[in-house]
Model the fold of this input.
Amino acid sequence: MRDDQDDSNDDDFTLGDGDADTEATVTCPYCGEPVEITLDPSGGDAQEYFEDCEICCNPWSVTVHYDVEGKADVEVSALDE
Done:
């Protein structure tokens, strides 16, 4: 790889005016508690990953979609669904 190349998704995804969402409050599908999670806009406009609830420790599937202004649509679902 050349020194001037970058493997990030910066060319594919613009963060609007630089104020992309970096946090979201979701409801745990297991315990029903609201949980604030941290988002990483540098991961691209469509993301899917796994995260454990900080209240009950059960695993979630997290899906994040950013629009062109950097607003995140976040969904969590039980991993065993």
User: Anything to note?
Assistant: Residues 44-81 form one domain.
